[in-house]
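Subject: Protein entry, chain in single-letter code together with its fold tokens

Area: Proteins and the way their chains fold up in space.

Attached in line: The record itself begins immediately under this heading.
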Amino acid sequence: MVVIRLARGGAKKRPYYYVVVADSASPRDGRYIEQIGTFNPMLKKDDETRVKLELERCKYWLSVGAQPTDRVARLLDAAGLMKRTASNNPEKSKPKKKRLEREAAQAEKAAKAAEAAAAAAAAPASE
């Protein structure tokens, strides 16, 4: 399967990416079929040299079935070559089982403490 993805270049803490067309089995920074652009995330978002793409080659590779990664799809969407739908996974942000158990235990403990305080407040008043 052919993919369009980013291959990392640049120094430590100074990333620079090449937009490449590669076989999906090849390593991230390894062998690729063709380099079709660059991406420099260190530049400001409104800088025109932040993303450089060879639009004709991008169109060609998309037409023959190359699948872009999510980040590359964002870059291609900004360039107007493809339409990317925003992803939303509300299930991921829901609390998991352990947290629900912990919250239930805390609520139970708070209810017992409130009940004990109410009983303590009612006992002196009745005497």
In short: Residues 88 and 94 are 13 Å apart (CA to CA). The two ends are 83 Å apart (CA to CA). The first helix runs from residue 55 to 63.
